[in-house]
Write a structure and sequence with these properties.
305 residues; alpha/beta; Nitrilase/N-carbamoyl-D-aminoacid amidohydrolase; 7-stranded mixed sheet; 8 helices; 16 strands; 20% helix; binds glutamine
Length: 305
């Protein structure tokens, strides 16, 4: 299986320019004819750092029918691959126009035939999301015991011909609102109990580097961020499972209103307690990272049993 992360630096609110940037990167990448899955960052074309509903309103897209979905369908058909892209969703009004509309921070996944496979709504919101988005509908379940609810807060299930997949968006891999225990590992626990061989996270992950530090060695990853991501999958590491689990972390890079993003998109494998890294993009690099999961990973970051 071949997967790709399109890491780039969208500008907040500059949708047409952001699309042009993404197209440009794809045109300058040798995309294999047998690519299975192309993943874009969270809120890829709208940009991420909005501070209110009023601010993001002009960029909201109706459920699986806005500009991001249209783009993803075209790209899926062109490369005959699955495409997952993050976008700011507003629900379409039902037959009763007085029914309230709801906003979500979502991803849509398209099949290689151009059909909509799944719309996922971010469950664990980051501070900025809370100003405009609601939690994904299943997100109440993490406050309940398993006995009380069978709804998981994240998606884990069949995703077309990709097979069984766990999907999340950025903060989903953190403790709920940074208040639940670190070791609750809500996201990784679901991935583990669902036995999905593939995990995919679309992200706009921030970093603590200064703008100057971010621009130094742009092709080097932010190692602290990658190490943190690996740490959030600890339950899968400790399970020491024989079957490999592949994790795709598709982040954005660049800056928005003084906020720096970590780039460093990463594809890794967890197997028998060992964590290996296939490839990592640089922290300030705009590129499409293509990884063949059947090849040997480049580095081992944690040895196994
Ligand atoms: N905890 C993440 C961060 O620090 C969350 C950001 C997000 O959800 N986009 O970047």
């Amino acid at each position: 299986m071949k997967v790709a992360c399109l890491q780039f630096a969208p500008e907040v609110g500059n949708v047409q320019e952001n699309i042009r940037r993404a197209d440009n990167i794809l045109q300058n990448t040798r995309i294999p004819t047998d690519l299975d899955w192309l993943v874009l960052p969270e809120l890829a074309f709208s940009g991420y750092n909005f501070h209110s509903l009023e601010e993001i309103r002009p960029y909201l897209e109706p459920t699986t029918s806005g500009v991001s979905t249209q783009w993803a369908i075209q790209v899926a058909l062109h490369y005959t691959c699955h495409v997952t892209i993050g976008y700011p969703e507003i629900t379409t009004p039902s037959t009763n126009p007085s029914d309230p509309q709801t906003q979500y921070n979502s991803t849509v996944t398209i099949s290689p035939q151009g059909t909509i496979l799944h719309n996922y709504r971010k469950s664990f919101l980051y501070y900025t999301d809370e100003t405009w988005a609601s939690e994904g509908p299943a997100s109440n379940s993490h406050k309940l015991s398993n006995a009380e609810s069978s709804d998981a807060p994240f998606f884990a299930g069949e995703l077309g011909s990709l097979g069984k997949v766990t999907l999340g968006i950025c903060m989903d891999i953190n403790p709920y609102r940074f208040t639940s225990p670190w070791a609750a590992y809500e996201f990784a626990s679901l991935a583990l109990s669902s036995s999905t061989p593939l995990i995919c996270i679309s992200m706009a992950w921030l970093c603590h580097l200064t703008p100057t530090e971010l621009m130094e060695n742009p092709t080097q990853p932010d190692v602290a961020t990658v190490a943190y991501w690996v740490e959030r999958f600890q339950p899968l590491v400790e399970a020491k499972g024989d079957k490999p689990v592949y994790v795709i972390l598709a982040n954005r890079c660049g800056m928005e209103k003084g906020v720096c993003y970590a780039g460093s998109s990463t594809v890794l494998r967890i197997e028998k307690g060992a964590v290996s890294l296939f490839e990592t993009a640089g922290k300030s690099e705009e590129k499409c990272l293509v990884v063949d999961l059947t090849e040997r990973p480049k580095f081992q970051v944690r040895s196994g049993r």
